[in-house]
């Protein structure tokens, strides 16, 4: 089976009711990045950061996967599918995708503020100040904040370098180093970009742009891929 790598961003979860960051009505209109998604914010006002992510967790738990998530999982019948997501929600997994790399962490998990490798599942939606790791340090959301290293990046690069087909869906390609992944896709493989507002992509070389929402564009693309590459 051919290896299909799907690189997703906030846009793929938009039709599940989870706000993106940069679209109008998106999260950054309500919150400044530096107030909620940086180590400095955590040092200055951990209660506020905790509350911001508690709300994100509540929303993610209530959301359901949409047609875009489901069709990516369906493609596992025809391809070896690796999903690399910038999303912190678990909608890919809940749709049935088995191989998912989360570049920016997972909202349903916490990690020790002192020991990054101590990671726990959170029961329910709320992580509280006073909740501690086994070594006694405050737990923080298991999120890669702006300015922090992206530990899964090397793994993601390996997967992209080995891809036979590469799909990018629902990302503005504004967040680095994640957006650099496009540079690692082999030149000769087919590449597709599904996004209703695909502004930046032209700087990344040859890639077929499908100017649609994920819920429509991905099922149409999946049908073509199955016909073209598996028969
Ligand atoms: P972004 O907000 O910068 O860009 C969203 C992209 O999605 C835009 O290009 C937009 O045109 C597109 N989009 C909007 N509706 C769409 C739809 N229905 N179908 C397909 N595409 C659609 O998001 P980003 O590029 O992922 O980067 C921002 C960061 O935000 C990421 O690091 C991610 O961790 C974080 N984030 C995650 C979630 C989540 O987990 N669901 C939600 C918001 C933000």
Defining traits:
SIR2/SIRT2 'Small Domain', six-stranded parallel beta sheet, Rossmann fold, 231 residues, alpha/beta, 2 domains, single chain, 30% helix, 8 helices, binds nicotinamide-adenine-dinucleotide
Q: So how many helices?
A: 8
Which H/E pattern describes the elements?
A: EHHHHHEHEEEEHEEEH
> CATH superfamily membership of the largest domain, which one?
TPP-binding domain
Shape: globular
| Proper CATH architecture of the largest domain | 3-Layer(aba) Sandwich
Class from secondary-structure proportions:
alpha/beta
Outline the structure in words:
- It is a single chain.
- A hairpin with a 6-residue loop joins strand 4 and strand 5.
- The termini are close together.
- The chain is α/β, with parallel strands linked by helices and 231 residues long.
- The chain folds into 2 domains: 139 residues, Rossmann fold; 83 residues, SIR2/SIRT2 'Small Domain' (2-Layer Sandwich), CATH 3.30.1600.
- It is 30% helix and 19% strand.
- It binds nicotinamide-adenine-dinucleotide (NAD).
- Nicotinamide-adenine-dinucleotide binds next to loops.
